[in-house]
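We were asked to recover a plausible sequence for a given structure. The inputs and outputs are reproduced exactly as logged, with field labels preserved.

PROBLEM: sequence recovery
POSITIONS: 118
GIVEN STRUCTURE:
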């Protein structure tokens, strides 16, 4: 189980990072992420339904022993494409096991035109 959400943004925004709390499906508690390597993947959904990868970058772990939160800090150029984007975090545990979060669906990121740069 994970907390998922829809994140509205304006083009060129880089302020507020994407965060996701990883919750254990067995006990409902945050997953310990000590020693986990995390990455963030974001794809733009094109008009024809295909997807184009825009971001494939390292992500951070906040308080790895107890909080279970992964975070991606936006970089310049990540949010230039207007439209619907689907994203997820990929976690590689010290055992070599790989999991993607959220476990169901995706983080939906909607990027709208910013009027300063219209």
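RECOVERED SEQUENCE:
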């Amino acid at each position: 189980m994970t907390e998922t959400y829809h994140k509205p943004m304006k083009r060129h925004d880089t302020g507020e990072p994407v965060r996701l709390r990883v919750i254990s499906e067995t006990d409902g508690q945050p997953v310990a992420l000590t020693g986990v390597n995390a990455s963030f993947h974001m794809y733009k959904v094109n008009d024809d339904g295909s997807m184009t990868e825009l971001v494939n970058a390292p992500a951070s772990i906040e308080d790895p022993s107890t909080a279970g939160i992964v975070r991606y800090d936006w970089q310049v150029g990540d949010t230039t494409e207007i439209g619907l984007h689907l994203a997820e975090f990929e976690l590689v545990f010290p055992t070599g096991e790989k999991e993607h979060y959220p476990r169901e669906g995706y983080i939906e990121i909607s990027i709208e035109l910013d009027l300063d740069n219209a």
